[in-house]
Write a structure and sequence with these properties.
two-stranded antiparallel sheet; 2 domains; alpha/beta; 14 strands; 20% strand
Amino acid sequence: MKIACVIYSNSEKYFELHQCATQSFRTFHPDIPLFSIDKNTPLPEGLDEGFHQLPAGVQKYVISLHVARQQGLDKLIILGADTITCSRLVEFIEGTEDILATLDYPYQFSITANGKLIQSPDDQTHVNADVVCFNNLEALAAIIKAAGGHSLYFEQGGLNEVLWTDDYNYSFRIIDYPYQESDVVYNTRAKGNICDTDGSKPWDKYTNQFFVEDGKLFTGADAKPKQIRVFHYCDGLFNSSDARSQGLITWWKEKGFNEVTKKFFVEQCNCDFFR
């Protein structure tokens, strides 16, 4: 099996977080090639001329597909630049479904795009496009094509469309579903199985309860603690003003995590960001 990971960002806002994303993935996956592409990295040759006009998230999927085809990959992991890998991604590596997805915030995905209503079955099945794995590159290509009809969610809209409409027939599994029963969490649910409904950003009451046991990081606010495989900030950093983005990054660094967690990020994930 030929496997690799792509982490892509096109903004200086992500520079520090991008470094943490790449260092943490490499720490737990020294055997898996990583293609880390940021604002200062030359893009692979052969991309279509319209690449730079695409939304950033769609760019990430397009460049990932491009790399996967160039490298002849059988399995492709895609991670957002605002993620921290906290463990080996066993479920991604061993999973065989066409699409291995992970959960977004607990609200029902519902939007009209490409001439149809697209809905996740409920508020516990909405998937996020920043932590995903593909065993079928045609499924990734289908998501990119579908994303063209989404003016709000873009690649995330395309991913949910491919999973939740009858127009596609790709096999898939949501790694951390059902959330309450899952032993692991791969995405935003590490921040708490909640939504920010009033703009108060209530994440620290959950993230400050993380704990470490046997060298593994766990959620601490759940009846059943879950090992955190990937932490995803998912805080709208790219679409925010420079001042707001920097404020959020500083908040997460200084207040978002307890000292046990920051020590874990430094010592176990090789994230210099938290030193």
